[in-house]
Design a protein that fits this description.
Radius of gyration: 49 Å
Shape: extended
Structural class: mainly beta
Helix content: under 10%
Number of helices: 4
Number of domains: 7
Largest sheet: 5 strands, antiparallel
C-alpha cells in the first residue's frame, strides 16, 4: 500500500523522504515552464511563430494587459488580440490533502493531477453501507466497521417460534400435539369434552411452557350421550368422565387421534367412531433419533460473496420403508445453518464430515502501519504517531475537593483503514492537573478544556453554609415536629423518662430538607416523667414509659408471663358466640365465620363481658357459593348463599341462565305493532319505504311490551313497500301515512 501511495504521489510531484523510520511526504512543485503549454498564435497571423512565454509573463498578460507607460515588450509579452484564446492547464490537485472528501470510508490520494477516492473494505458510515445480516441478526456500524448484532426476541426455529415473523408465538399458541389434559362437561343428556395440549408462553421459543395458564384448549365437542330418559351428571373433578342419572355413561375407546398413539413412528394413528386405527406411514417418513451420517458445507452470502457466508449442516436418518418398519432407505434432513460468519470472515469446511470454521479475511498488508499480523486493521486508537493531537480532562470524583486529571493523545489508527488519523487518537495515561477547593465541585463542560471548580451551593439557602458548602447531616432545617423518642435513665435510685424531639434535617450532600430517619435533627434530652416506687420504666424501641411493677400473678387470668396485665381484648374465656359475614357480594363468594371470646380489660385481672373488650378470631371461609349464587348477610348474625336468578329460565324475556333478556329483544306474536313510511326520493322513479316495529323485552322484567317506546325495529333497515315506476312520484304526508304513487310532482 505504501509503495502504491508513493508511486501515485511521485506522479504529481511528491517524493517520499525517509527520516526517523517513518515515511514523510515532501511536496515538490512541477516545472511550471515545462508544464504550461505554449500559446497558439492568432489564426489570421500566419507568419507569427509559436511562443512559449514564461509563467511570469503569462500572469502579466492576464492580470495587467496594459502597461502604465504604454510601452510593449515584444520579447516577453503576447498580444492577446492577435493570439486568440489561451488554454492554461490547471491541475485538479497537487497533494493528497486537497483530495480529502470528508468521507471516513475512502482513501483519498492525488494521482496524475486527479483525485482518486478508493473505498475502504469493510468500512461504513451507517448500517446501510453494511451487507445484509443473517437471520435474527441486524447489521451495525461501530467505529466505521461493519458487524452484526443479535435481534432482540428473534428466532429462526423452535417449537414456540413463528418463522414467518421470526418471533415467539403468542401465549397459549399450540406448541405440539401431545395431549396434556382432558375435561368433560354436561349439556342435558349429552357428554361434551375438550383436550389441552402444551402451549407457548410468548417469551421462550425453544420449548413449550409447562404453566397450566398457557395450555391450548380445543373447542368443546360431543363425545357421548346418556341413555334415553337420563341426564348427564357433572363430576366435581372435571378431568373425570361424568355419570348418567346414577348409572355410568358408555365410555368410547377414544375421543381424539392423540389418544390412539401407539409410540410407533411408522404408523399413522387416528380415532374413527370411537375406535383407534393404525395405518402404515409413508415410506419416506423419518424414524429413529440417531443420525447415520452428518455432512457440513458452506453457504455463500447473498450475491455469492465469500465474506459473510454461513456454515450449514444436514443429517441422514433411516426411513420407515414400504412395510412400515424402520428399515427403509436413508433420507436426508433439510440443510440448517450451524454458524453465521461475520462480514470480515469467510466459511471454511476442509472436511465435509467435520464442522469447519469462520476465518478472518485479510484486508491489509500484515506489518504495515495500522495493520496487524492477521491482516486486519489495527483496533481504533492503536498508537501510530508521536505528536500530541488532542487533550482530554476529567474529574476524579463527584465529591467536594476533587482532583482533576488530563491525558494527551497522539495520532492513532482508525480501525477501518491503514491510515494514521488524528480523529482516532491513542490516549496516554491520566496525569494530575489540579485540585478544587474543599467546598467546591469539579465539572468538565468541555472534555478538551480544563475543568471548572464551583461552590456546591448558594450561601444562605436551605442547608447551605455561609461558606457555600452543604450543612452537616442532621442540621435542623425546619420547625415542623416529626416525632419524638424517649428512654429510661436511672440515677441515685431514681428512674426517669427522658424525651428528645425530632425535626427535619439536612442530608449533608445536597440542599434537601429531609425527613428520612437518618437525617433527622434530635433535640437535647429532657425529663418528661419520674417513675413512682411501685412503677418501673420499660423501654420499647424508641419509646419508654413508667408501668406497674408486676401487678398480677403470672399464669392467672388476664395476667402475662412477666406479671403484667394482659392487653385489652386478650382472650380470657370460652367462646361466647359466632359471627357471620360475606367475603364479598360478587357471584361465587364465600360465607365467613369467626368465634367471639370474652376479653381482658388491660388494667386488671378480670375477664370483661363488655363487647368493646371482646377477643375475635380471624375470619374463616365455611361455605363456597356457586357461580349462580352470591353471599348475603345481616348484622354479623346471619349469612348464606342465595340464588342470582332474576326470572324463570326459558320463559318469555328470560334466558337459560335466569337473567332478563336485554332491552329490545324481539318477543311475542310475530305481527307488526307499528309501521312508519317515507319516500326514498322526491324525483321520478322513487319508491315508498317502510320500517316495521315488533313487541320487545324491556330488559328489567320478564315482560314482552307493545308500548311504542319499547318496540324494536326489525329488521333495522327500510324495506320497499312499493316502487312508483319511472313516470311516477312518491308521496308520503307523514310517518304513519302509507303513501301513494302518481304522476304529480
Amino acid at each position: 500500500m505504501g509503495a502504491m501511495i508513493a508511486s501515485a504521489l511521485a506522479a504529481c510531484g511528491t517524493a517520499a523522504v525517509s527520516g526517523d523510520g517513518s515515511d514523510t511526504l515532501v511536496f515538490q512543485p512541477p516545472d511550471v515552464k515545462s508544464d504550461i503549454p505554449t500559446v497558439k498564435p492568432d489564426a489570421a497571423d500566419t507568419d507569427s511563430a509559436e511562443v512559449a512565454p514564461d509563467v511570469a509573463d503569462v500572469a502579466s498578460d492576464v492580470e495587467q494587459p496594459d502597461l502604465a507607460d504604454g510601452s510593449d515588450d515584444a520579447d516577453d509579452t503576447v498580444d492577446v488580440q492577435d493570439s486568440g484564446p489561451t488554454d492554461v492547464f490547471v491541475p485538479e490537485c497537487v497533494t493528497d490533502t486537497t483530495c480529502d472528501d470528508k468521507n471516513l470510508c475512502t482513501v483519498d490520494i492525488c494521482a496524475n493531477d486527479k483525485c482518486l477516492h478508493s473505498p475502504t473494505p469493510g468500512c461504513c458510515l451507517t448500517e446501510k453501507d453494511c451487507p445484509a445480516a443473517p437471520i435474527c441478526k441486524a447489521a451495525q456500524c461501530v467505529n466505521n466497521v461493519c458487524g452484526v448484532q443479535p435481534v432482540a426476541n428473534c428466532c429462526a426455529s423452535g417449537l414456540c417460534c413463528d418463522p414467518a415473523t421470526q418471533s415467539a408465538k403468542v401465549p397459549q399458541a399450540p406448541c405440539n400435539d401431545v395431549a396434556i389434559s382432558l375435561e368433560f362437561d354436561c349439556q342435558g343428556p349429552d357428554i361434551w369434552g375438550r383436550r389441552a395440549i402444551q402451549g407457548c408462553d410468548g417469551k421462550q421459543t425453544a420449548a413449550c411452557s409447562g404453566n397450566v395458564a398457557n395450555y391450548s384448549w380445543t373447542e368443546w365437542l360431543p363425545v357421548g350421550s346418556c341413555p334415553s330418559g337420563s341426564l348427564c351428571q357433572k363430576n366435581p373433578d372435571k378431568t373425570q368422565f361424568p355419570a348418567c342419572s346414577g348409572t355410568p355413561a358408555p365410555v368410547p375407546s377414544c375421543i381424539s387421534d392423540i389418544g390412539c398413539s401407539d409410540g410407533d413412528p411408522c404408523t399413522v394413528d387416528t380415532c374413527s367412531s370411537g375406535t383407534c386405527k393404525h395405518a402404515l406411514a409413508d415410506a419416506a417418513t423419518l424414524c429413529g433419533t440417531t443420525a447415520t451420517y452428518t455432512q457440513y458445507d458452506c453457504l455463500p452470502a447473498p450475491g455469492g460473496a465469500d465474506a459473510g457466508g454461513s456454515m450449514i449442516m444436514h443429517q441422514q436418518f433411516a426411513s420407515c420403508g414400504a412395510v412400515g418398519k424402520c428399515d427403509g432407505k436413508a433420507v436426508w434432513s433439510p440443510w440448517t445453518i450451524v454458524q453465521d460468519c461475520l462480514a470480515t470472515e469467510k466459511c471454511d469446511v476442509p472436511i465435509s464430515t467435520e464442522p469447519g470454521t469462520c476465518t478472518l479475511i485479510a484486508v491489509c498488508k500484515p506489518g504495515t502501519t495500522c495493520c496487524g499480523v492477521d491482516g486486519q486493521y489495527s483496533p481504533t486508537g492503536t498508537t501510530c504517531g508521536t505528536a500530541t493531537v488532542a487533550t482530554e480532562y476529567q474529574c476524579e470524583t463527584a465529591v467536594k475537593g476533587s482532583k482533576f486529571t488530563k491525558r494527551d493523545g497522539v495520532a492513532g489508527c482508525s480501525g477501518t483503514s491503514a491510515l494514521c488519523s488524528a480523529a482516532t487518537p491513542s490516549w496516554g495515561t491520566w496525569k494530575s492537573a489540579g485540585t478544587c477547593a474543599y467546598n467546591q465541585l469539579c465539572s468538565v463542560p468541555l472534555a478538551s478544556a480544563p475543568p471548572v471548580c464551583t461552590d456546591v451551593c448558594a450561601a444562605g439557602t436551605t442547608c447551605c453554609t455561609d461558606a457555600g458548602d452543604w450543612a452537616d447531616q442532621g442540621t435542623k432545617c425546619s420547625d415542623q415536629l416529626q416525632s419524638s423518642v424517649s428512654k429510661c435513665v436511672a440515677s441515685s435510685g431514681t428512674v426517669t423518662v427522658l424525651s428528645s424531639q425530632l425535626f427535619p434535617g439536612c442530608t449533608g450532600v445536597d440542599g434537601t430538607c429531609s425527613i428520612d430517619p437518618a437525617n433527622l435533627n434530635k433535640s437535647a434530652y429532657s425529663i418528661v416523667k419520674q417513675c413512682q416506687s411501685y412503677e418501673k420504666c420499660v423501654q420499647t424501641g424508641d419509646s419508654a414509659d413508667c408501668v406497674l411493677n408486676a401487678p398480677c400473678q403470672p399464669g392467672t387470668q388476664c395476667c402475662t408471663a412477666d406479671g403484667q396485665f394482659s392487653p385489652l381484648g386478650a382472650q380470657c374465656a370460652s367462646a361466647n358466640k359466632t359471627q357471620y359475614a360475606c367475603s364479598n357480594n360478587l357471584p361465587g363468594g364465600f360465607v365467613q365465620t369467626r368465634a367471639v371470646y370474652y376479653g381482658c380489660t388491660g388494667y386488671n385481672g378480670e375477664c370483661s363481658y363488655n363487647p368493646a373488650n371482646y377477643f375475635l378470631t380471624p375470619w374463616v371461609e365455611t361455605t363456597d357459593c356457586l357461580p349462580s349464587e352470591q353471599c348475603t348477610s345481616a348484622d354479623l348474625t346471619f349469612a348464606e348463599c342465595t340464588s342470582l336468578y332474576q326470572c324463570v329460565p326459558g320463559t318469555i324475556c328470560c334466558d337459560g341462565y335466569g337473567n332478563f333478556m336485554t332491552k329490545g329483544t324481539k318477543c311475542g306474536p310475530p305481527d307488526v305493532k307499528k309501521t312508519n313510511y317515507k319516500c326514498d326520493s322526491t324525483g321520478l322513479g322513487g319508491s315508498i319505504l317502510k320500517q316495521e316495529y315488533y313487541a320487545a323485552c324491556v330488559g328489567t322484567a320478564a315482560n314482552c311490551s307493545t308500548v311504542d317506546a319499547d318496540l324494536v325495529w326489525d329488521p333495522p333497515v327500510w324495506l320497499t313497500k312499493q316502487s312508483c315506476g319511472p313516470m311516477n312520484y312518491c308521496h308520503v304526508s307523514g310517518p304513519t301515512d302509507p303513501g301513494v304513487c302518481n304522476s304529480t310532482p
